[in-house]
Amino acid sequence: MTANNNRHLYRSREECIIAGVCGGLADFFGLNVSRVRLILLLLILFAGLSVWVYIVLWLVVPLEPQR
Questions:
Q1: CA dist., res. 45 & res. 13, Å (int)
Q2: In the predicted structure, residue 52 carries a pLDDT above the cut 70
Q3: What is the DSSP string of 3-66?
Q4: pLDDT at position 56, please?
Q5: Is the pLDDT of residue 4 over 70?
Q6: Rounded mean pLDDT of 19-47?
Q7: pTM, to two decimals
């Protein structure tokens, strides 16, 4: 049985506040973008996740192709 996994991680063009990273992650995992933003904020504030992780994702993850 072959699975069709044509999902790609892109930064979102529509759901972006700073760089579209949270919108892209929400789209990739099928989550609400507000929840992803809240989870990321809580991880940065309380779990020691660095803002550098967000910046690296901003630089590494490509922008969503135009439709």
A1: 26
A2: yes
A3: --------B-SSS-SSSSHHHHHHHHHT--HHHHHHHHHHHHHHS---HHHHHHHHHHSPBPPP
A4: 92
A5: no
A6: 92
A7: 0.81
Helix axis angle, 51-60 to 21-29, nearest 10°? 80
Tally the C-alpha atoms within 13 A of residue 17's C-alpha that lie toward its C-beta.
7
The radius of gyration of the chain's CA atoms, rounded to the nearest angstrom, is: 13
19 vs 48: CA distance, rounded Å: 21
For residues 29-39, give the mean pLDDT.
94
Residues 6+ apart with CB under 8 A from 8: 28
Residues in the chain: 67
- Give the span between the Cα atoms of 21 and 2, in whole angstroms: 29
